[in-house]
Automatic annotation (TrEMBL):
PANTHER family per UniProt: DUF295 DOMAIN-CONTAINING PROTEIN, TRANSMEMBRANE PROTEIN
Record-given protein name: F-box protein
InterPro entries: KIB1-4_b-propeller
Superkingdom: Eukaryota
Pfam families named among the record's database cross-references: Beta-prop_KIB1-4 (PF03478)
Domain KIB1-4 beta-propeller: 9-202, 277-488
Amino acid sequence: MNSSESEDTDHTIALPVLPKDLTYRKHLLTAPPHTDQPCFVFSFVDADRAIIFCCRPGVDKTWTRRSWLIQKQQFPIHDAIKCDGKLYVIYDTDELGEIKFTDSGEVSFRGCDGFTLPPRRSPFYKYRLVESHSEVFAVGRKSIFDIDVFKMNSSQNRWDRVSKLNPDTCFGFYGTLSASFSASELGVKENSIFFEENEFPDIDSSLFSFNLLDMSLTSVYDWIKFRAVCKELKSLAHPIQWTPKLAIPFEYPWLMYPHEEIQGMYNFYDPVSNLMMHSICIPELENCKIRFSHQGWLLVTKPPTSVFFFEPFTRTTFPLQDLTHGLYDAFCFSEAPTSMDWQIFGISHSTPESFKICHLRSGLPWLLGTFQFFPAIAHPFFSNLVFDGQYFCYLEKHGNVLCFDGNNVHHPIVKGSFSRVLMSNYWRQFLVCSGDEMLSVWIHKLRDSMHVSKLNSQGDKWVKIKSVDKKSLYLSQTASLAVETKSPRMRDTVQLCMFSEIHGHDKNKNISFSLKDQNFYIYNGTQGYSALEDIYHTKEIFLRGTWIQPLIQPHAIIW
């Protein structure tokens, strides 16, 4: 920072040169130059302790360095805002402080006792400050669809959560800048919070709007009026663009399922943090069934024969050719529609004597086939389809795996074991691809246990295993994933697309199974995890919900 521009005089005031061996988090001007208010420029160093440089434009020839300790401890400054002649900062993650300054050049720091912000709900959670109508607000964000707003209550020495902003108000965040704008002047809904999200380092940031009143998230496409408000925000006004080679979904999946009472509303639950991430209204999914989830995309059908790809966070729809009929029981696709070589495979058990398949490849028409059941293949029962890189695979209830090569779907091969006695003891079964290995998960018919097996290298026998190499398995009829996890609690667990119906306020926490101690568990808030004797009193989402790996990475927060 080498100059300060005065709006009143259209005059440039030269500033001293800042030390070049440091990086700076933020710069603030306390008041316009040549006014009766104390005018300082503060430059906050990006460091793990409170270091600032300050000077008075037109007065000081050099920058003055200031550094403070609180109770002999170092602390970083994360954000700063000016309001009514005062300079407030967030330090040490969630504490509020004030930097005092006078005309004579004196600068000091004090902590604002009693103004600790609510505890961060996640390591990904970050606070930003914004001034609006001479009031200080703190905006906390864990992800693009999990945002809280708090207002500083000076009379009570506390932060009050707010469910709506002041009338005709919206907030904007870009880089280290924050501002409050008139919603009517922008031509946008009031209670909107605009922010950038840089999902991937090699592409530009995208602009999102989160409405605090209805908790909706919108990707910003055409904001000519928004550009005119502040020239610093011009670079944000462009549509979201997914780059196939870079659009890698966030690894840890969330459970997406419909709201019980509000039609068109979907909940997103994160079993890692045990938090409801957000609820989003998705009218595009009304009267639809989610058939498969992969790489952040959904395959969706709508009666009678409509089928399409859908990305729920940006509401991007990729239409497909209609199906010949709508009676397919399971679907799977190999790659996201952004790929040039995606495939879709479906299977139908509409008659007791035979089953039908359908196969669609990018740029080609649907390919259909009918097969008679034969001795090695019993009538399938509640199984999911997976793609292992070459074959679309289906697990039938006696343990055999029917494999369809995408290049020759009319000649399936059979893998796995065949034991009517053993497999008749199980209620549900799932297939999971874990790297180069094929896993099967079996829930006992008494619903009090489950076991996991791995297909041997010859592909002709299931071998029971007690560990999944510290991974966590996520299972549903529409998605199955094996994810490496850093959390010790999540290792060697199976996360189910099921909720308990007998645990009161925790009925929206999914059920998991620990391979270590062979118990089912449900999260009970402050009590931690409670073991379940069985999973009889549960509800399953079936075709209305799924596990999804968000294309927006919740930890990639750019404030």
